[in-house]
Amino acid sequence: MWGAYSYGIGAVMVAAVIAFFALSRERDDLQKLLLLDLVEMVGLGVIALLGTDLAEALILPGLTVGIAELLALSQIYCTKEGILDRPVTGLNIEVIALADAPLILSLFLVVYGLILSGFTGGAVAGLGLVFLFLSRTFREDLNLLEMASGISWALWIFAFFVFMFLPQYWFVALMGAAVGILLKVTVKMSLVGTMWGEQHG
Amino acid sequence: MADLIGGIPLFVLEFGDELVYFTPYTITLFLLALTFTLLVLISRPERQIDIAFGGDAYRAKEITVAEMRFRRFMAIACGLATMGAMVTGDIFNFTLFTAMVGITNVGIVAAVKSRHVQDAAYQYGLVALAATVPLFAGAAVYAAVTGSLSMIELMKGTVPAVPLIAKGMLVLGVIGEGMAPFYAAKAEMFRAPGAPYVIMCSLSSLLIFLRVVEIVMLG
Fold first, then answer.
1. What is the predicted ipTM?
2. B140, A55: Cβ pair inside 8 Å?
3. Are A65 and B92 within 8 A, CB to CB?
């Protein structure tokens, strides 16, 4: 196992060297940001090489931090280049806006997310909904979605209390937590999608 | 456990995965971070004065309340992240808190509506983003070699020795996130008005650097 890990870490290091070399040659600010996002993937690769449950638990916060920094930096870029007033009109592609393809793709992602369940499933299903909301200009009732998000969060917390105080019912708690986090992440991501559409649509 | 740089832990709290401990060393750093966060919370920001060279003329820079409110929020978030990094007993939690210190440091200065300051903040942000790679990779190698991320386990000395490269990557990551050596070379960022908030950047980077020294001495 140690041998495979060494080969893996060697490959990742080569990738890191290539990425940082490209970064040192790049002069454009926006391109630098995009390259850094690629470099970030290398860091996640090192964590993924652990190949255990722990690695999965570490990748999620690592990814979240990376995305947060990326969002912050792109916001600064927009402000410093003075391009905040340019409207972004979602995925303004004629084919996507009119055809049935987004619906089918979203349906596929949502079903696949339901099968995966848990955090990953929620992210996949949420991505499907984000895609749908981005490609269509929906006006949804946000209050209802927020209520669903709140209830599923409460379910998640409740499941944790079952884990702590009634460990013999762990299976119920596991199912409750899995469904709760699935709904929570799905709803949160679709909220991001609708709010984006409202702001820029 | 005799030659620990931080001293023997006075208090250890293990709550599931979360591990918090205080040594005489970390409790000092924690109290410093706490004091400064409280100061940021209650103090009123300064106005920056520009003095015209060769004359008596001077003018105070105009700062909007919204901008100051955002910067105070970022400074307090930075203080909280620093406090977390001081007391945590888990290597990965430490890297996450450090990354958060990096983001909030950039946020403190990026709210300033000046082209120069924003340029500098953007470059620092790029450095901080690049530094997450060695930071997380270092923590991952720690986990791969010792099979644990707990600093208490590292203290006991029963786990295999951590390779130098993992320690080096951890320190490199902290340097990048805290931006400690870089603001000596590019001080434009500190021309931003608002005294207590900007100082939070340098204080937090100093504190996380002091903490990482303790961490690399453990294993």
1. 0.79
2. yes
3. no
